[in-house]
């Protein structure tokens, strides 16, 4: 699903992962009652342990991003380049994930969606690979995928 200029959804969507204009990332999961489970990764964050600014995702370089819905641990997690960057617990009474029967779209809004933000209909970048799995990847599995040597997906 897409958001309008104020960051609100124009229609119900089960899952959404999007790059924000700030270089951050937003993940949203909706349940059948239209309750929103959301986590935002800020675009620019200072890491005091490393003594440097963390990389934003709109720097013209390739990045690996992952959204993990871990119902067992009660966390919605965002990873960037193999590193956990944000997480949030589910809202109270979050139920079964919404199933609205829409087709999966990657990098493009549906033709019937109005363009309220004034931005392009297509994602203004390149998407190299999309993977959807039926389990919550561990931090190690996510890091292995970023490094390109994930034995869990070996063919």
Rg from Cα: 16 Å
The biggest beta sheet reads: 3 strands, antiparallel
Strand residue content: 25-35%
Q: Regions with pLDDT < 50 over 5+ consecutive residues?
A: 1-11
Count of β-strands: 8
Describe this protein's structure:
This protein has about 160 residues and is mostly beta strands. It is about 5% helix and about 25% strand. The longest helix has 9 residues, at about 140-145. The protein is globular, with a radius of gyration of 16 Å. The two termini are about 30 Å apart. About 15% of the residues are buried. Mean pLDDT is about 75; it is low at about 1-10.
Task: Itemize the secondary structure elements and their pairings.
Layout: E1 15-19, E2 25-30, E3 36-41, E4 46-47, E5 52-53, E6 65-70, E7 75-80, E8 83-88, H1 139-147
Antiparallel strand pairs: 1-2, 2-3, 4-5, 6-7, 7-8
Which features characterize this protein?
1 helix; 155 residues; mainly beta; 6% helix; disordered N terminus; three-stranded antiparallel sheet
How would you summarize what this structure contains?
The protein has 155 residues and is mainly beta.
